[in-house]
Write a structure and sequence with these properties.
With about 350 residues, the protein is α+β, with helices and mostly antiparallel strands. Helices cover about 55% and strands about 10% of the residues. The chain has a domain at about 260-350. It is built from 14 helices and 6 strands. The strands form 2 sheets. A 4-stranded mixed beta sheet has the order 3-4-5-6, covered by helices on one side. A two-stranded antiparallel ribbon has the order 1-2.
């Protein structure tokens, strides 16, 4: 097992040992955390110079471990219920890693010139180190998400956007950067940071950020806060592109309409549904919000009772859909538990 200079466990050495990279292990095992980081950085940069994507990616992952151990040497995991303190510690680590990678990325040989095959032709310029660049960009983007303030996070986002703006001869990593931003702006991304970024960086990524903001705002809205904030916020995007503003207006209005129409089913006919309540689950990958899974669960004496309930709900949905202004694809799913046997059968599902 790998150890650090004071006898604590070293994830870096354990990872190198697991990879059976004996020369690297020999170079690293007797070093200090700072010395190990220097060694890993040098080998990583050498692999990049030779455009060896697989080797560079391996050493990049070891570099993240080296940065962790250099910043907090001999820090053993501590069992604690102070989740806020744990989150703050993790955020500091992520930002330290992102800051270090931000300093390395500009020196990365991101393009490779391919010589011409025939006389009179010009050589090709190819993007290189795709896996390594993706991992580096994601590390920087996670720093954007985890930074303690919007201003601190904005430094990482600004770096990413400037990287895109320095594309060489039209060859670069725009789609790679687009994918990175889409991946990092998931449900745990702060809504206030998305708003801050949209206001301060109108341009190439505005539409991606607008999509993320609508989806995340809807998730929070569906958990109890007012989803009307979606439409209310549209007017605040005066610096966003017209295309993004129209997206927010259209999708935001549709979300609210869909939500009102669906939730009205629970209120319009309590004699049919009570005590059954319908749950609505929106498809996160469907930005039109026109595909909804409608679920319910009941306790019954007999399976026949369940199917009668299913038919009642099915009929009520079909009746209500005739008057809906927004076309919605419904997948109705019900499951039941026997009152005394406590058995749950496979659910019945039907597309409406």
């Amino acid at each position: 097992m790998g150890t650090n200079e004071k006898g604590g466990n070293s994830q870096l050495l354990e990872s190198v040992l697991k990879a059976k990279n004996w020369p690297a292990l020999a170079d690293l095992k007797n070093g200090t955390p700072s010395g190990r980081r220097a060694i890993v950085t040098n080998v990583f940069e050498e692999a990049c110079v030779h455009h060896d994507d697989e080797v560079a990616l391996q050493w990049f992952n070891w570099l993240l471990l080296a940065i962790t151990e250099e910043g907090e040497p001999n820090l053993e995991p501590v069992e604690t219920t102070d989740w806020k303190a744990q989150d703050e510690t993790k955020a500091r680590l992520v930002c330290r890693q992102a800051e270090a990678i931000k300093a390395l990325y500009p020196e990365l040989p991101r393009f490779r010139e391919e010589p011409a095959r025939y006389a009179g032709e010009s050589g090709a310029i190819l993007s290189t180190l795709l896996k390594t660049k993706k991992a580096m960009l994601e590390t920087i983007a996670v720093g954007w998400r985890a930074a303690p303030t919007n201003e601190a996070g904005d430094e990482f986002f600004t770096f990413i956007s400037k990287t895109d703006s320095t594309l060489r001869d039209g060859v670069g990593d725009r789609e790679l950067i687009n994918e990175t931003i889409r991946r990092v702006t998931g449900s745990d991304f702060p809504l206030t940071r998305l708003m801050y970024t949209l206001r301060n960086h109108p341009g190439a990524y505005t539409d991606i950020l607008a999509h993320a903001w609508v989806k995340n705002a809807w998730r929070y809205g569906s958990r109890g806060s007012s989803s009307s904030l979606i439409l209310a916020a549209v007017g605040d995007f005066y610096e966003a592109s017209p295309k993004a503003t129209k997206l927010l207006e259209r999708v935001g209005a549709k979300i609210l309409t869909v939500d009102r129409q669906l939730r009205g089913l629970n209120d319009s006919s309590p004699s049919v549904f009570a005590p059954t309540r319908l749950e609505f689950v929106y498809d996160d990958d469907n930005l039109e919000f026109d595909k909804v899974l409608t679920r319910f669960e009941v306790v019954v004496h007999d399976e026949k009772d369940f199917h009668q309930q299913f038919e009642l709900i099915r009929g009520r949905i079909l009746e209500a859909k005739r008057d809906w202004s927004v076309p919605i694809k419904i997948r109705l799913q019900g499951k039941f538990t026997f009152r005394y046997k406590h058995q749950i059968t496979c659910p019945r599902t039907e597309d409406l």
